[in-house]
Amino acid sequence: MNKPKMATEKGVPSTSRVLMLLGQLERMNGEAMVRDVEMARQVTAKILHLIQTQEKSGKEVMSKGSSGMEVILASLENTRDVQTTLNILYILSELLTVGRGRRVGVFVSKGGTGILFQILITASKELPPSEELMLQLHSLLAKVGPKDRKFGVKARLSGALNVTVNLMKQNIQNIKLLLPCLQVLRVYSTNSVNAISLGKNGVVELMFKIVAPYSKKNTSLLKVALDALGALLKSKTNARRAVDGGHVPILLAVYLDWHRNDTRHRHMLIRKGLLVCLRNITNIKLGRKAFVEADGMRVLYNSSTECLPVRTLDPLINTSSLIMRKCFPKNRLPLPTIKSAFHYQLPHVPAVGPVAQLYSQPPGVDDVVDESDDNEETDADTENDTENEEDEKDQRSANDDIETDLNKLHPKKNPGRPFEELRVYERFFLELSEDFQGYNFECSKSASTTSSSSSFSLSSASSQSTRPIIVPTAQALSPKHVSVPSSQEDCNPTKGKHTLPSPSATTPTPPAPLTPLELDTIHLTKDQDKKEEGHIPSPDTRTTLSSLTRPPSQGQMIQQELAHVLECVSLEEEGVLKAEEAGGRGVKQEEGSPVNATRHIQSPLLLGGIATRRVGGGGSNWGSDCGSEGTEDEGGEGAVLEVPDTALLLPMHDPDLYVEMVKGTNSVPQYAEVAYPDYFGHVAPTFREPLVERVYGVQRSKIFQDIERLIHPNDILDKVVYDLDIPSCPVIEDSGESLKFNSQFESGNLRKAVQVRKYEYDLVLNSDINSNHYHQWFYFEVSGMRVGSTYRFNIINCEKSNSQFNYGMQVLMYSVQEAISGRPRWVRTGTDICYYKNHFARSSIAAGGQKGKSYYTMTFSTNFSHKDDVCYFAYHYPYTYSTLKMHLSKLEALRTPQIYLRQDVLCETLGGNGCPLLTITAMPESNSNDHICQFRNRPLIFLSARVHPGETNASWVMKGTLEFLMGTSPLAASLREAYIFKIVPMLNPDGVINGNHRCSLSGEDLNRQWQNPNPELHPTIYHTKSLLQYLAHIQRAPLVFCDYHGHSRKKNVFMYGCSVKETVWQSNISATSSDLQEDLGYRALPKILSQIAPAFSMASCSFVVERSKESTARVVVWREIGVQRSYTMESTLCGCDQGKYKVSVYLILFIGYGQKRPVQCKFSRITCS
Q1: ∠22-25-26 over CA atoms, to 5°?
Q2: Candidate list 746, 818, 963, 1130, residue with the active-site label
Q3: Helices (DSSP H) in 876-1003: which residue ranges?
Q4: Is residue 26 flagged as an active site residue?
Q5: What are the start-end ranges of the H helices in 525-675?
Q6: pTM of the predicted model as reported, rounded to 2 decimal places
Q7: Is the peptide bond prior to 730 cis by the omega test (within 30 degrees of 0)?
Q8: How far is CA 381 from CA 686, 857, 908, in A?
Q9: Each residue's pLDDT tens digit, 45-67
């Protein structure tokens, strides 16, 4: 080392005693120090005395500008005298003890760590080595090590590892020397290479000799030893050594001993250290097996249960919980296959991708329990996880996903298809060529009311009244061969329907079509006649929706219960249904066999306090089944249960019309029922619902209840009560001790229900059709409940690593009892809600090749207010395809002579359902050239929604958009006069109908198909993109494109857009100023929304283009169509954390329904005709 020159800090007297001594020591460095040993001892002793007795002396040595540390280290390196070395080590120890953070950093930066290792190696060669010197060296290394990032590497390269290990082996009983050695070993072991090396040198076995049962002596030593052992056991090699050595039962026994004896909880850190060792051992499969065989689950469960009352012991409980969850035996889901319970044969299977992999798998290999040693401790496993942590993970992954190719970042209009192919789409843009010469503006009102063909309805009755224009795909027919009916030339502002046939219909070998239900003979009517007597249906009458019940007599109003009510609106086919076919509803039947659509329940409905009036005549329908014989009451009078006239509550909802729309909806399972909430409708609450505050420890308590299943298996019923994999009888009847479940209706999703305890049920969701995953959306019916009992429901096959259910979100519940009482609404419900990783293993096949993944449980508890009620639970407010059709039909009533509204059918889906396309703008003031020119040249705004079926809030926002645009407000009128709105309100009807969460019937995410959509597999995306390509060809690309979505893990409403500049800024790629030239207009719309909409968050918006999103609508429309203002608008599924809706569930339904005052509820009778 070069000889340092002693310098003094400005302002420090040069006559300072300690600085004079340091100067003297500096002059002695080199040969003088070796020759004059006694003088070196005296000088270093004096410096030590000054630093020990005078605080300012230490400050002078370590002050900025002082070279005191260099002098001390040079002296330490040059001396050969043990006493002088000890004096200098004492000096360093004193200096680094005070203000150790900065001072240790200075020490490390001056090379102090290397000098200490050098002295350690030298001292170890003396026999015997100086105990005091070794003690001081290791004490100092223990202080320095945590601050030196290269400490482990330096120790290994210098040979210090073996010196420390040998010293420990020779002094295993010397507590004074062993403690600093363990402290240094703890730092050594943080380096993974060192940990493996130490394990080979027998350190793991050595540490287990130090670990001891409960004792009040040497607790500090044991704490440090456990820390070091825990660090060593992070290495899988060392963990295997511990298992092979039989140390897992030893650790459990020691932990149990400390737990029993440490009654005052003074040694929690030792107990935590033992648990950390067990946690690291159980990171490997062999360790988990040894833990279970040693009865570790019972030991930790019992000890943790005893710790629960003491809040300060939460670290022990959390660590124990983590260990038990890891060691809980991995199970398959209780399903025969993780593929969907429903099968739809595709017209052709893609050559590559998840769907191709699904079809290529042999039977029985789709669900493989992965036995890898990978563990997901980084996932949302603990009570203290926050949304911010989840956002940080998303941000880190997003940074790796940012597009860095400038060629892809610059939008380039690329229509992709020849204009001759796209010309067929001209028929969907009649407003661009309409001249209105035959339109009588003076009598526009009468003309507008006579156009009945515009109502969008796919029911068989309505479809016969209008002859659609057939617009084939380019592959099927050249545009020049398309004939246009003369009705097209009519200038009525409301146009007829135009339909693109399903592309698969033109293929040589089309798949077998879905057979629609012949339900036209079933009608639901509202009987408004007031009569004194009720009608008694004959036993063979097929009841579809009735709540036909026997009323209590005047003297028995409270005591009697009405014996029977239907759980669902039931839709039947023509013909007599046999009793043995009663379990076959909602399932595909063999050709020629009718679909049995009748569903009955046994549970009575108590109507105490519900005002009803008698209608009809005769009596009541009694018996255990609808339509069975019964007897009249003593008075000979009967009555039917009346339901509210929802038209008064919901002007845009008509139950009868909804049923008609259901008849024209094709589903894969051939659903024959209508859920009550969809039939009755939903009135939005006029109040804000607060987010639920999470109860501390709720997740832990739920996990412990799950662990009890393994420890006390005899307490578990494990009784299947509902199973879609049994098509003949999915509802498993019992003696009435279990709840009854159902999901066989449009948008329903529940595959299996297993009763695990008297009031607890495990629920399994169905995969998307032609997929083996995407479990999030649920919508199911429950009946047969008891009032006053708390039921727990566990949805056990969720896939996302975190959920808003951990941050205040609740499930939605709809009570039929409440609905018929005049309160038809979904309400937030559920207590003890949490979302956590469970012990059901996800197959790597379904996890995209990732191993070691688990499913997640979403659990909630609830109480039911009404005996034998029929309730529905949903992930979010349901919005079915039939609801959309009904709404579009009702939307016509809002049209005034000043509104131009046209409803077309863009195409047919794979399932044979129409995809509606709407055009909304203002009628021209007259047919003058100026007014017609202004009408045709209005900019276009293109809106779409519901490409992901589980994001139902997107449909509610779209509903609100449509009603606003059709409204009478001056703002709506000005928007219509300024723009032409082209709207595809539901891009994925098949997914919505069949209860999918993300995919269509093709098993693919349609929002990842925009780059190259297949006309057969992705018809809605193919034709929607073609509309945009046509507009680009005729130089009329939309001013704004916005795709409505819902977000499950973030709050508020926000937008994603596309910007070259912001993407480049985030990716740190080099770009010239010309590369970053772009109009900032893409920020205008989000900025406006942030100023006028309380729920909109500008801070949550992003305009970065990611590689993984290059096939989404937003990016493709921006890049290929050249729409600068191309957005995805995300609406939260939970609530807001800003503005006026902060800490409350933001009701997206307000957008759809408006904040209406409650309406007086009236009842009407619903009967079968």
Answers
A1: 85
A2: 1130
A3: 881-891, 929-936, 953-965, 970-978, 989-993
A4: no
A5: 646-649, 655-663
A6: 0.78
A7: no
A8: 37, 11, 44
A9: 999 999 999 888 888 888 887 88
